C-alpha cells in the first residue's frame, strides 16, 4: 500500500501541483495520429450519437492561458474525435476555482466532469449529493484502472464507494535528492557513503579536513533547516530520519492491523540520537536554525561550503550551475547519490505523494454520459499514441520523433513560441510522474538523477486518508509540541533521556489517545484495519 505523511494539525488530504511546466510552440500541418487502442472509446457503434460534455478543469497547469478556438485546439479535437463528443471546457482563474464551482453548483449548473484538488473536496461534494458513485461502471474500463496504482484508487474510495478517478500523477524523486561534493570525496580519498555510519564519517571529514584546501576552518558536512512554523519536513533533517524508517511530525503507517505513529515510534529516538551525534560533532552548519526557506538552503548550495545536502535535482540544470559560478567562483562537482540504507533496511529518498487530486462526475449525468466521460478519461490517460500529444504538446513544435523515439523540444523554443501556445498546458494531465522526457532536462545528469531516484521513492503512508476531527481541539497544540520536542531532542537542548516524559506529556496534556482513536476509527471505515 502506498501512502505519504500528513499534517497533524489539519489531517486533511492535500496534494500539491508543484510540477515543472514546459512551454509551447508552433503547430505544424500534420494531423495527430489516430488511436489504435481497442478500448471502449474507439467503438464507433457505441458512440454513434454525439454528446455534449461540460468540463470544469482546474487541473490545468496554466490557469492564465486562454482557451483557443476549436479549429486551433489540437488536443481538444483529439478528445472530441476519440469518443464523439462536443467538449465545453471551463478554466477557472487561479485562486477562484472554489468560488466559481460553488457558484455554478448553487445555480444548478453543475459541470458534467469536475477536476478537484483534494480528497476533502471530493468527499464534501459527494456528501452534498453533487457527485456520482462510479463503482458500477469502472469494471468496464480495465485500462484506466491499470493506469493508476492501488493507492491512488484507494484515495478515490469513500464510504465503500469509488467516487472519483485519479486526476494525475504527482511528481516524486526529484525535489529530495541527496547531493554530495564528489570533488571533496576524491580529495579526501573517500568513497560515496552507503550507510548512516559511513555518511557520518564523510560529514566529519568534510568538516575537519579542509576539503576545499583554503587553510580555513570554514566547511561543514551538512546543513538542513525547518520552516517558520518549526516543521522539519522537506528541509533535510526529515530525510535523515527516513534512514531509520520514521518521519515527523505525524507520519502514520498500518502494520499488523494496527496504526503505527512513526513520529513517536522507538526508532524515532534512534533517528534523533543520530542527528544529535551530528550536532555534537559540529558537522552541521550552525546556520541551520536560520534556514527557514528553500531559497536560503539554495544559497548554501551555491556557496559550496557544505559537502552534503538534500536539494532538488534540478539544481544540476545550467541556470543553477551558473548561479554557483557567480556566487562561489566555481561550479562544484555536485553529484546525486542513492539514499543511505538504514539499520532496518530503509532506503528512502521520499514517500510517494498522496493522490489527492481527482476527476469526479456530476450526479446529474445519466448512465450513458458517465460511460462516455469515463471512456474519454481512459483514452486521455492510456492511449499510447495519443500520450505525447497531451503530455508534451504539439508534434513538430514541442516534440518530434528522433531515431524512432520521442524527443521533447520545448526547452529549445523561443519565449515567443512558448507564449503562443501556452494553452497546451490545459491538457498535460496524462504525463507520468516519472517521465523524465516530459521535463525536458537540459543536463543529462538531472535526468539520470531523476530516473535513479525513482527506485527509492517509498510507499505512500495510509495516514493520508485521515480527515480532521472537529472535536479534537488540541490538534494544533499537539502538533506544535511534537515539532518543538523533536527539535529540542536532536539539537541537544533536551536530553533523549527525557523521551519517556515526552510520550507521557503527549498522553496526559495533549490527549494523544483521542488522536489514536480517531485514526483507528477512520482506518476501519476505509478497510485498512479489520
Automatic annotation (TrEMBL):
Offer one Pfam family short name for this entry: SBP_bac_1
Q: Does the keyword Signal apply?
A: yes
Checking InterPro entries in the record gives: Bact_solute-bd_prot1, SBP
Q: Which residues form a coiled coil?
A: none
Keywords associated with the record? Cell membrane, Lipoprotein, Membrane, Palmitate, Signal
Q: According to the UniProt entry, where is the signal peptide?
A: 1-22
Q: Which domain of life is it from?
A: Bacteria
Entry annotated with the keyword Cell membrane: yes
- Its recorded name reads ABC transporter substrate-binding protein
**What is the organism field in this record?**
Paenibacillus contaminans
Q: What is the lineage of its organism?
A: Bacteria, Bacillati, Bacillota, Bacilli, Bacillales
